[in-house]
User: What shape does this take?
Amino acid sequence: MAKGARLRKVVAPKRLTGEINVPGDKSISHRALILGSLAQGVSKIANLSPGKDCRSTVTCLKALGVKMKWECTAALTVFIYGCGGSCLIEPANVLDAGNSATTMRLLSGVLATQPFLSIVSGDSSLRSRPMKRVIQPLRLMGAEIYGRGGDSFAPLVIRGARLHGIEYKLPIPSAQVKSAILLAGLFAEGDTVIEQPLPSRDHTERLLELMGARIRFHSRRIHLAPLVSPLSAIDITVPGDISSAAYWIVAGIIHSNARIKIKGCGVNPLRTGILDALTAMGARIKFENEHLEGNELVADLIVESSQLRGIEIGGEIVPRLIDEIPLLALAGCIARGTTVIRNASELRTKESDRITTTVRELSRLGARIDELPDGMVIHGGGLLTGAEVKSHADHRLSMTLAVAGLVAKGGIVIHNAEVTEISYPGFWQELENISMPSE
Assistant: This one.
């Protein structure tokens, strides 16, 4: 696998094999950092995600006065010195969320309750992502929050206020918006009730429950009472990120000679849509060593070369696999028959328009794939061939294309491949570790 400053060449190996420890779950890491900062006492968070997105959350929290100490171990560990939500200070400068929408949206819920002014911005990609969806419910709670473009985009300007709980129906499934409302509701007057059109990832709810919040959640309904005493500090190991594991899962099942074991992976039922979809396509995936860690289900996953068939994907499963849809499209290229993906228009508001960019770049490799307004149709059974492709500054697309390179005839070259650092700094090294040289 050759590399340059901004280019990566991936050549199909004769075999994929090995054991992988994927980075800590990015979604859980963000939430553990923020909630640990709001808790009373010292929280120890081990196996924190090392990606740039979580570093953005750390940078913002430090600018708000949160004290942290890092432990030099193989698994990134941080001690967070929380003081019950009363120690945050007005930042001296604009808070920089980088490329991380999770950082911006979740912190908006916290900052809306604080007695000071704050401004949150990010890179050009983040400043183009929709923020009205979080501004509107926070305003209903009494927040003073404003954004660019008619309160639609960052930078966000937030002046803390006394908030009140609301009953709110989410227009679309969004774990980030839901979490922002819950974080604001912790310090609001009265209860906060959220109705979801479809269940979305529930890491915030699980951590709040673990830390002693008065929260009840089941399926589509969440009920949160405001804090009467501070959240309790926690000592947890973050499970491996299933969104990161998904690249190795798909690599293992589409390559003709592969067996890969992924250790300590989070298998929260609201995140395992990718496993359900791939299993329906005929993937050989086995669970071992299932257990609970930090109120989350964890397991080792073993994947092997598989004969896949096309399926239809849509409806309630989509929020459970929204980040992995480019990978499912790739699997559909290799599968026999046709794979149809619908109800995924949310992909158009990610780091890139992931419907358009996925269709465009996989087509460069010879895939027969058609774009739909809310998804795509993949005509499988063909061979992928080498070509130069672009990441469109989208970390998930870059890694999906790298996996495609493992089965493409002649190898591929990815432009702006280093964008993988946003969520998975060790991705390229892991790819080398499991790739047996071509003959």
